[in-house]
Every structure is written in C-alpha cells, then in structure tokens.
Amino acid sequence: MTATSTMQHDGVVGAISKLDRDNATGLTADDWASALDWWREAGVDVLVDDGVRDWFAAPPAPIAVTAATVAATAASAPAALPATLEAFAAWRLGADAPEAAWSGVSLAASGPAYAKIMVLVDCPDREDGDAGALLSGTTGRLFDRMLAAIGLSRETVHVAAVCARRPAAGRMPREIEARLGEVARHHIGLVAPERLLLLGDATARAVLGMDRQAAKGDLRAFNHDSGTTGAGTTGVVASLHPRLLIERPAMKAESWRDLQLLVKDWKQ
C-alpha cells in the first residue's frame, strides 16, 4: 500500500471511529477497519477516482470486430522469419529487418554458416562500419587473442550481432530489444551451434532475458528446434564485451574464466 493510500486508510478509520461513537451504524470501528484491510489485500488501495465519474451513465458500446480490423492487425504483426539460414542472412540485411530504417550500413554475420561455436555481440562498434565487419580495430584484435587462447579463430566460429546496424546512441534501444532478441534467437536456432558466447549485457538480456550479471558463471541451456540439427540444446555463456575489457583491464580474469567455461567438456 502506498504512502498516500496509507494516509487515506488511516483517515477513513478515524472517520469510522467517529461514526461508531455517534452510533450511526451497527458496526464497530474494528469491523470497518477489517473490511478495509480485506479490500487492500485484494489490491484496492485508492478510495476515490482522480476524475468525476457518472455511475448512472450507460456503459460504452462494445467495439465491433470487423474483417478490416482483423486484417489491419494481421498486417501490423511481424512477418514470419525465414526458415533457412541462407534466406535469413539475406532478410537480415534487407528492408524488412527491424533496424533497416536506421542510418549506416548493416553488417552481415561472418565465419562458417553452421559453426559449432557462435559468438553474438550487441551491435557494431563505430569503427566496424568503416571496416565492413564486426569486431574490428582494437576491439577485434583483443577478440582474436581471446579466441586463440581457447584454440579457436574467426575461421571456426560464427560471429553475429543482435543489431545488424549501429544504433545512433551506440547501444541497443530498449523499445526494440524484444523484437531484436526474437530475431537473434531465431538466428541461433538456424545455426544450431553446440556452444554460444554472448558478449555484453544487452546481448545477454536480448537472448536470455536476464542481465549478464545474473547469467554469468553458468553454462546455460538454450533450446532450439530449427537449424540443420533439428531439436537440440546449445550451451550458452554470458561474458564481457572486449570493448569493456579495453576500458577495464582488471576484468580480463573474469573473461578468461568465461572462455574456459565455454569450451569445458566440449570436443572440437
């Protein structure tokens, strides 16, 4: 119950006590207070509306559901995502992608189409647009060293971004995060990797529905029913983006533990 509703509750109980003293009802103040508590537990915590209500007015007529309404609703719903990785890759860079209206260029995924390990970042960095590839420049060089430390390289992993284009603010907009997460999860299902590395907090939130801080330290299961392998499970590790490691080198130890977890008990 809010502070305002608490004051309202106490004020009403005081008024009820006066009514009880005046013997206006056959109920005691405790009876009325008990009734108010019951309504509060039921979720009613305001005693008045903000505006005037005409309780005797006729109820509004129900909105008729017409064929045009149904058609308009269907037209506004997102179209089904492509069922093959090849078609999805073309769609991801086309005019129907969620971020197609943003400025800049869309960056395609790289690496083997059906790699056993997939790496997903939140969005391209500023220098990625000039390079025409994800994880370029200083961030990319650190990423390459991270892969090499666990016996991998860009030639063996599938690298993609939740946002194919860089957002104007440089981070994934919350209002489109749910749709981008749906697209990313579909992408993962089509690749059907054995292991998935999520780099960055926004990436973990889009795919797993939780922040990296909540997801870290565990090899989480991602169930998918598409891709070349059919129904299957991918082991997921949420870790730190290389750009953050450049800013905070002391966090590299945590990143190293995540990389070890990614390949633990995994046979190349």
Outline the structure in words.
The chain is α/β, with parallel strands linked by helices and 268 residues long. 44% of the residues lie in helices and 10% in strands. A 5-stranded mixed β-sheet has the order 2-1-3-5-4. A hairpin with a 7-residue loop joins strand 4 and strand 5. The longest helix is centred in the N-terminal third of the chain and has 19 residues, at 3-21. It is extended and about 80 Å long. The chain starts with a helix and ends in a 5-residue tail after the last helix. The model is unreliable at 1-9 and 72-77 (pLDDT under 50).
Order of helices and strands: HHHHEHHEHEHHEEHH
Distance between the termini: 56 Å
The best one-word shape is extended
Unreliable stretches (pLDDT < 50, length at least 5) are: 1-9, 72-77
Q: Work out the radius of gyration.
A: 28 Å
How is the secondary structure organized here?
Layout: H1 3-21, H2 29-41, H3 67-76, H4 85-92, E1 117-121, H5 126-131, H6 137-149, E2 157-161, H7 174-191, E3 195-199, H8 201-208, H9 212-215, E4 220-224, E5 232-239, H10 242-247, H11 252-263
Helix pairs in contact: 1-2, 7-8
What is shown here, in short?
By secondary structure, the protein is α/β, with parallel strands linked by helices.
List keywords for this structure.
268 residues; alpha/beta; five-stranded mixed sheet; 11 helices; extended; disordered N terminus
